[in-house]
Amino acid sequence: MQALIVDDERHCREGLAIMLAKYCPGVEVLAQCPDARTALKAIGKYQPDLIFLDIEMPVMNGFDMLERCKEYDLEIIFTTAYNEYAIQAIRRSAIDYLLKPVSKNELIEAVNRATEARKNKALPEGPPLRSRIALPTIDGLILLDLKDVIYCEAENNYTRFHLSGGDSVYVSKTLRKVEDLLLDNPDFFRIHHSFIVNLKYVQRYFRGDGGEINLATGLRIPVSRAKKQEFLDRLERL
Hints:
- By secondary structure, this protein is an alpha/beta fold.
- The chain folds into two domains: 2-121, Response regulator (Rossmann fold, 3-Layer(aba) Sandwich); 132-236, CATH 2.40.50.1020.
- The protein contains seven helices and 15 strands.
- The strands form four sheets. A five-stranded parallel β-sheet has the order 2-1-3-4-5, sandwiched between helices. Strands 10-9-8-12-11 form a five-stranded antiparallel β-sheet. Strands 13-14-15 form a three-stranded antiparallel β-sheet, with no helix packed on it.
- A hairpin with a 4-residue loop joins strand 14 (212-215) and strand 15 (220-222).
- The model has no long low-confidence stretch (mean pLDDT 91).
- InterPro entries: Bact_response_regulator (IPR050595), CheY-like_superfamily (IPR011006), LytTR_DNA-bd_dom (IPR007492), Sig_transdc_resp-reg_receiver (IPR001789).
- This is LytTR family two component transcriptional regulator.
- Residues 2-115 form the Response regulatory domain.
- Keywords: Phosphoprotein.
């Protein structure tokens, strides 16, 4: 899962990031945000799965921040030094409410719950293995043959579809929404917070922290560390 850490205290942000790297290797921290406004921009940019969110912060608290990002499908784990917000957190459908200093076991349990919640939301809808997909554009709808899609690239709240003929289509959906639409198609895989690729166009994998792939077009795209093993497993099943 891809995550943001939002906390106005630097040592808390960095400490949590270290714990996640050590105990929760399936979580990739995309950014550490010192305030809610920075976090809102990061949410639009990265479209994460999970937010570790402090509550008491200057200018805008954690609850107010959530009111401004209701359109995003996020799992929330509150991290705070104050226990009086627990009821409010439950009402906000938070995955968990962790008191600082965060303990290793509680963190692992919270991340496991978030992972399970994400899997439950990811159940595919509609008929399997659709060959075409209808997508909203600025001026209407476009029907695309999925076999022609090489990769999809996030551009803030939009997604650009890169096609085999060299054309590209700008679509009015986030990459997260596109990923949900393609869940039933084993040819597509989200290798990075900014990219979904058609595995049939992958020609080569280069080792590294996460590594990189080479597409049939010659383009290199990074693979996130958190997605690396799942990606390699998928390639072996092709």
